[in-house]
């Protein structure tokens, strides 16, 4: 069982997209997943509403909206009923995001390989440091490039910057900028469910999620 949170202090990096895809990726493996919308912009709630419409109500997971400091206790209460919990947060340092980082086992931090996005990581490492200091156990952090350039060389500088920040747990599994994300997302679907699937997008996500999931399994069996 794991509680995942998508985090970061920059809008548009792909937190909601990653939360939606991880939720559906786990649900498609038969897991009972709770998706928590902890962003007042309610993106994953809107996504789920479109999904209900497209799939005649069979979204495949449970959605709740939770905001503020209470989120922590509410997630603690709800998590025993599910195989996994995914919390999507907004792109700012808020009480909700801090509560989510406090209750989570694993933080996923998508980063666009652009200077304006990379600059925000100093702020994020500070937030993560403050959270780590108040926890009794360690929050596992995995950062990775999202909406990366198709040509790998163009992402190198950002990848190096991310890899140099010790508490951001950089994973070298980039998700590239692919049209399949907005085109499926508009209907409340993931790239796994497209009529004409983009195999490259699917492979990139499988590699990333396998790596995150296997790291989790290894750490919990060792513990
Ligand atoms: N890998 C990707 N390739 C192309 N578009 C993407 C990718 N990831 C996210 N997007 C698009 O970028 C926009 C912002 O993503 P979103 O997940 O809402 O970001 P955040 O939640 O961090 O603000 C959305 O329109 C989404 O469809
Ligand atoms: Mg979002």
Task: Describe what you observe in this structure.
- Helices cover 44% and strands 17% of the residues.
- The protein is α/β, with parallel strands linked by helices and 223 residues long.
- The protein has a single domain (2-222), classed as P-loop containing nucleotide triphosphate hydrolases (Rossmann fold, 3-Layer(aba) Sandwich), CATH 3.40.50.300.
- Helix 3 (71-78) runs parallel beside helix 4.
- The longest helix has 24 residues, at 199-222.
- It is globular, with a radius of gyration of 16 Å.
- Bound molecules: adenosine-5'-diphosphate and magnesium ion.
- Magnesium ion (MG) binds next to helix 1.
Keywords:
binds adenosine-5'-diphosphate, alpha/beta, 7-stranded parallel β-sheet, binds magnesium ion, Rossmann fold, 223 residues, globular, single chain, 44% helix
Could you spell the SSE succession in H and E letters?
EHEHEHEHEHHEHEHH
CATH homology superfamily name: P-loop containing nucleotide triphosphate hydrolases
State the domain count. 1
Mean pLDDT across residues:
96
CATH architecture: 3-Layer(aba) Sandwich
Structural class: alpha/beta
Shape: globular
At the first level of CATH, what is the class? Alpha Beta
Radius of gyration: 16 Å
Q: Which consecutive residue ranges, at least 5 long each, have pLDDT under 50?
A: none
The number of helical runs is: 9
How much β-strand is present in the residues? 15-25%
Gap from first CA to last CA? 14 Å
Strand tally:
7
Main beta sheet: 7 strands, parallel
**If you consult CATH, what is the topology?**
Rossmann fold
Please give the share of residues in helix. 40-55%
The largest sheet has its strands arranged as 3-2-4-1-5-6-7
Protein name: AAA family ATPase
Organism: Spirosoma liriopis
InterPro entries: CobQ/CobB/MinD/ParA_Nub-bd_dom (IPR002586), DNA_Partitioning_ATPase (IPR050678), P-loop_NTPase (IPR027417)
């Amino acid at each position: 069982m794991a509680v995942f949170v998508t985090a970061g202090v920059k809008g548009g990096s792909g937190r909601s997209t990653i939360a939606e895809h991880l939720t559906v990726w786990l649900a498609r493996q038969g897991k009972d997943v709770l998706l928590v919308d902890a962003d007042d912009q309610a993106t994953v709630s809107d996504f789920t509403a479109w999904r209900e419409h497209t799939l005649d109500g069979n979204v495949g997971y449970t959605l709740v909206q939770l905001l503020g400091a209470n989120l922590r206790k509410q997630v603690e209460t709800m998590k025993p009923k599910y195989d996994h919990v995914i919390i999507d947060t907004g792109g700012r340092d808020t009480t909700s995001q801090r509560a989510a980082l406090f209750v989570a086992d694993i933080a996923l931090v998508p980063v666009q390989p652009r200077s304006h996005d990379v600059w925000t990581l100093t702020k994020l490492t500070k937030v993560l440091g403050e959270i780590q200091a108040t926890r009794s156990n360690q929050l596992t952090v995995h950062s990775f490039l999202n909406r990366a350039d198709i040509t790998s060389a163009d992402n190198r500088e950002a990848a190096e910057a991310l890899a140099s920040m010790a508490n951001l747990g950089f994973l070298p599994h980039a998700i590239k900028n692919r049209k399949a994300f907005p085109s499926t997302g508009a209907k409340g679907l993931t790239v796994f469910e497209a009529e004409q699937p983009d195999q490259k997008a699917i492979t990139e996500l499988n590699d990333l999620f396998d790596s995150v999931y296997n790291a989790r399994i290894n750490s919990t069996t060792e513990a």
